[in-house]
Amino acid sequence: MGIDLPLIWAVIIIFGIMMYVVMDGFDLGIGILFPFIPGKVDRDVMMNTVAPVWDGNETWLVLGGAALFGAFPLAYSVVLSALYLPLILMLIGLIFRGVAFEFRFKAKDHKRHLWDKAFIGGSLAATFFQGVALGAFIDGIPVVNRQFAGGSLDWLTPFTMFCGVALIVAYALLGCTWLIMKTEGKLQEQMHNLARPLAFVVLAVIGIVSLWTPLTHPEIASRWFTLPNLFWFLPVPILVLVTMYGLFRAVARHAHYTPFLLTLVLIFLGYSGLGISLWPNIIPPSVSIWDAAAPPQSQGFMLVGTLFIIPFILGYTFWSYYVFRGKVTHEDGYH
Amino acid sequence: MYTSRPFLYLALWMGPSGLIAILAGWFTTEIGRQPWVVYGLMRTADASSGHSLAQMTITLVLFVVVYFALFGAGLGYMMRLVRKGPQTHEGSEPTHGGPGQKRTPARPLSAADDGSDNDHDHIQHKGN
């Protein structure tokens, strides 16, 4: 028995996508929360909390895409073909918000509202279409002769639309708790007030997605609800409830760090729930990671470089968060 | 040399020359290898996805429009810098740098001090 290369690659990609979701999640959340905070000064602070790190966060999206291309070319060609339109629209959203980071600070006062709108719209669009893509992925992608065999608008269903909205709410909560951690004073107070209703909505959408998915996908229902699986997987929903309870407590006692950390746990639990539902398929409902794997020579060759580079990415990511640690305030600017 | 008109015009035209060189090189490789996408192994026609013409047209037009809008804004900003001309920095001491100081820029463009930033607004600061 040799090394199970497809398994290693699946773990790398799952890890990369999770890093992307939690990291770009909170900075997309900043854009989603912009409409709630109209003042320029507060918006400057919000943007400055993520300005040094946001583009590094998107490294993981690139890593995930490139790894999928190299290690699972079949999944890459089929999934990206099936999700062509939502992913293009996601990219356009990311382009607008990425540019808004730079131009908003350079814009004259009468034009700044344009870049505010680009930032809000871009963040909303990118998040929504990520959710749509995720929903369409869960719904499954028809494959015939190793090619995508569906229509170009297959992704447009009530379930995927709901997933888009659900992700917007989830990222908003991530952004909100991130700001609780990174700001102080009135802005932090506003975020504390916002966190509670947001957390309620997130709990609701988690509940709805968790019911909707097994109800429409018998194979996912049987994965979760047959014995003994149920006992193995029961900790996930229980931990979601415990984490939610902790989150409400932490927000009530005006904690600074705990809400964000608990929201990360929440996202991780949601993500593992998704993993439980889909494993080991890389193109649901039927193509597994072993079916879609590139030849072992390719996977082994790429693995050497990837295992070399990932510690570096983690290292500089940690370093940049360390350099820019602490609270961001407007007053700090006047030195 | 600072007043020679031909030299100054030459310097002016050097501005877009880098972009032209990049595009020319790119066009040469991409057109030159046709009809292969993997040279000698796979035709471009065999490598393309089965998307409809309408889908490709819409997304291509979308990209062109978005890029024109954003590059237009970027170009406008560059023109603003050019109109302003070079600024002297005599009498202003650079800070020592370090986290949150001006010399540790928080964003790519914040490294370029053009004087049009509201300097107090965007500087990333270490807390405490």
TrEMBL record, chain A:
Q: Where are the transmembrane segments?
A: 6-37, 82-99, 119-138, 158-181, 193-215, 230-248, 260-280, 300-324
Which keywords has UniProt assigned to this entry? Cell membrane, Membrane, Transmembrane, Transmembrane helix
Membrane disposition: Multi-pass membrane protein
Compartments it resides in: Cell membrane
Q: Name one GO molecular function term.
A: electron transfer activity
Could you state one GO biological process linked to this protein? aerobic electron transport chain
Spell out the Pfam families in the cross-references. Cyt_bd_oxida_II
Cross-referenced PANTHER family, in alphabetical order?
Answer: CYTOCHROME BD2 SUBUNIT II (PTHR43141:SF4)
Family from the record: Belongs to the cytochrome ubiquinol oxidase subunit 2 family.
Stated name of the protein = Cytochrome bd2, subunit II
Q: What is the lineage of its organism?
A: Bacteria, Pseudomonadati, Pseudomonadota, Gammaproteobacteria, Pseudomonadales
